[in-house]
Write a structure and sequence with these properties.
The chain is of the alpha/beta class and about 425 residues long. It is about 35% helix and about 20% strand. The structure holds nicotinamide-adenine-dinucleotide.
Length: about 425
């Protein structure tokens, strides 16, 4: 029943004549208002699934890049009939529209701040990973989610991918034996492209708003569109972009929350950029009963080792590879045993499971349940990425008290859990949300 029909019914029969379940049904099926903040590649992938699912009406889009936003608005109108209002400043959007739901698919340096402001405006959030750019921002976002009590689904769609779910079941059943070492990795081939020189800011882009609380670097086509992943001021590196998906899976399998110690090193093999993000990084995370290794390379993809992306779980009964487009595969230790393989079931474009994650999010809102990729578990996965970045930048290992979310005995490393914001943006404080 649509809201209009509900009003007609209640007008004709009178509220006194209605039973309570009728009212609940009406509120459950009413369309929710939805806004998208960040109309780039992934934001539009999410919005298309939201439009197809049909529970929401798109009321607004926001992007400091007007060209990207206008193209998005045309597509929205064509696909859903909704005529979205356009904003370049998300604060204005939140104040004027007060949407029921926002999707946040901006570069990493915006996630926590826009998340907190959206919670304060009363919105449920589909928030892209990693949840924050620094550890202290993540703490503030989690504090805000506790205070405002809205649902947050983090875009860790592998948490609901069919082959990932059956893979975790397989591991938990003990069929791979006792697992002492886990190796997560993403290797892409690359060519060492050199950085493009800074250029004039295009007239359709509000560059100051794009950079927001982060440093205002000279504009370059290497940064926008789609190049923010090369610049540590705006990204968290490959360990925050891809690693966080695998850390989420590892914590899900182990039911652990925090490593005790982290060491990471990385560098640019191809000097000269673009940007300053490492093109290889490795990190070691010590847990109570197992150790996790992370590796990324943007040169020399790894066909020689069969899989270029995924996580190997090394168990006493064999090696289990949890992958992406290659599903999962178990290589038993016993020579005469059969290899077991599970194909993936992924949505298009870009081989993902946003559709399932969106459906779970809507169900969580409607039924007041915890979404499958909730903010707290996603914070633990994000912290693994951010601790790896922090250790790499500090140049030493970090002892981590996960329960207190504190670095132990290292004041200089502790300072790196936050960074200065550019004026007038104010760094969010977990103790004063
Ligand atoms: N879950 C996944 O598998 C997955 C996959 C890809 C990307 N992502 C995430 O999605 C996010 C966006 O990545 P992308 O590849 O779509 O980048 P993109 O550059 O294509 O899109 C980001 C958009 O955000 C806009 N933007 C910048 N500042 C803004 C602001 N203040 N307000 C509103 N919009 C702003 C940019 O102009 C751009 O249009 C990243 O955090 C990335 O980690 C997740």
């Amino acid at each position: 029943m649509q809201r209009r029909d509900f009003i007609k019914v209640s007008g004709a029969a009178g509220l006194a004549g209605m039973t309570f379940p009728n009212i609940i049904l009406a509120s459950k099926t009413k369309k929710m208002t939805l806004a998208l903040i960040g109309t780039g590649w992934w934001g539009m992938n999410i919005l298309r699934e939201a439009m197809a699912e049909g529970s929401s009406k798109i009321v607004a889009l926001c992007d400091p890049d007007r060209k990207a936003m206008e193209t998005a608005a045309e597509e929205v109108q064509k696909l859903s009939g909704d005529k979205a209002k356009l904003y370049t400043d998300y604060r204005e959007l939140l104040k004027k529209e007060k949407p029921d739901i926002v999707i946040i698919a901006t570069p990493d340096h915006w996630h926590a701040l826009q998340g907190i402001e959206s919670l304060k405006a009363g919105c449920h959030i589909y928030l892209e990973k990693p949840i924050s750019h620094t550890i202290d921002e993540g703490k503030a976002l989690v504090a805000a989610s506790e205070k405002y009590g809205k649902k947050i689904q983090v875009g860790l769609h592998r948490h609901i991918s069919p082959h990932n779910m059956s893979g975790i079941d397989f591991l938990r059943s003990g069929k791979a034996g006792k697992i002492g070492f886990v190796r997560a990795f993403v290797h892409y081939g690359g060519s060492g492209r050199r950085a493009a020189p800074p250029s004039e800011v295009p007239s359709h882009l509000d560059w100051n708003m794009w950079c927001g609380p982060a440093p205002l670097l000279p504009f370059s086509n290497d940064i926008h569109p789609r190049g923010f992943r090369n610049y540590m001021d705006y990204t968290t590196g490959m360990v925050g972009d891809w690693g966080v998906h695998w850390f989420d899976q590892i914590l899900w399998w182990s039911e652990d929350k925090h490593p005790k110690r982290v060491f990471s090193t990385g560098n640019q093999f191809f000097k000269g950029g673009p940007g300053d993000a490492p093109d290889f990084q490795t990190a070691v995370f010590e847990f109570e009963e197992f150790t996790v290794n992370w590796e990324h390379r943007r040169f020399a993809a790894n066909e020689s080792e069969k899989h270029s992306i995924g996580v190997y779980f090394y168990g006493t009964e064999g090696v289990f590879h949890l992958g992406w487009q290659d599903g999962w595969t178990f290589y038993p230790a016993k020579k005469d045993s059969q290899i077991i393989h599970q194909k993936p079931s992924l949505g298009m474009p870009d081989h993902q499971n946003i559709k399932e994650l969106w459906a779970d999010f809507i169900q969580a809102i409607r039924n007041n349940q915890k979404p499958v990729a909730d903010i707290v578990n996603s914070q633990y996965a994000t912290n693994m990425s951010l601790l790896a970045v922090l250790s790499m930048q500090a140049g030493r290992s970090i002892e981590w008290n996960g329960e207190k979310q504190e670095i132990v005995g290292d004041a200089e490393a502790t300072r790196r859990m936050r960074r200065d914001y550019r004026s007038p943006w104010i760094y969010p404080d977990a103790s004063n949300i």
